[in-house]
Amino acid sequence: MRLLFLLLTVAALVCAAAAASDGFDPPVSRQLVNLGLSPNCDPACPIVLACHYYPSFMVKELNSGEIGADLIAIVRRKGQSLPACSKNLLPGEIELKDWGYFLGVKGALVFLGTADGANGGIGFSAYGARTGKLLFQDDVIESSSNETRKPGEPMPFRNLRLTTDASGTLVLNYMRVVVTDCDLHREALHCWNRIRTQYALKPATPPVCKGYKGVKESLESVIAYPVQTTLTSPPVTKVLDGPIQCWPVQ
Helical H runs in 99-217? Predict the structure, then answer.
């Protein structure tokens, strides 16, 4: 059990380092609490409460081995005292429901990701840390999707990248994933003309789709294209120049 907890601790630190490289703010401190063995795992695994402390709030995430966290919540810091790392309901705690995992924090925004990807993409969301209000959500290309990766091809927008503009407003760069209503592999130009109009895509010629080999029936296509979203109120998203990818729904 100690080994399992150690592995989870190392995984949490690795994930934190990866998050920081994508532009998320590193936490001031982090605490992991082992709450005993989970009945949801075979072989056994621990129930782990992870508390991520930032200057004005804490994000806590409870995992018991199920797909997706059992609990993700924001707890505001009051005065100089830090909120306790406890699974119990804390004063001022705001639970963020219906999302899978905690991704990271940028400024006063808390980012969550869905527990499972779908059709080569994975959902993410941004919440206000003070109110717990959902401010933005979209789907980004899943990093582990082999069917969308070309050997040696640079993918600067594959992961969610966070920066700020000159005014200090948060800017997101990523490959947006959408499911279309037609088969780009079979209908090609006819389908593409509808799609490029609907999503304001620039290329006149359709992308070459992958993953249709051996598929006999018509399948709707999934596309991924680079976008930049500025998190003003309301958020503004614009399409960027860059690679457009295509594959069938899964």
Answer: 184-187, 189-199
Under 8 Å between Cβ of 29 and 53:
yes
Question: Which pair of structure tokens corresponds to residue 85?
Answer: 């790392």
Residues whose CB is less than 8 angstroms from the CB of residue 47 and which lie 6 or more positions away in sequence, other chains included: 34, 35, 36, 37, 38, 62, 63, 64, 65
- 221, 198 Cβ separation under 8 angstroms: no
Q: What span, in angstroms and rounded, lies between the C-alpha atoms of 164 and 8? A: 32
For the record, the structure tokens of 145 come out as 């999707």
Q: What is the per-residue pLDDT across 194-220, written as a single tens digit (0 to 9) for each? A: 999 999 999 999 999 999 999 999 999
Q: pTM of the predicted model, to two decimals?
A: 0.84
Q: What is the pLDDT of residues 155-191, one digit of tens each?
A: 344 578 999 999 999 999 999 999 999 999 999 999 9
Sorted by sequence, the CB contacts under 8 Å of residue 223 that are 6+ apart come out as 177, 178, 180, 184, 195, 199, 207, 244, 245, 246
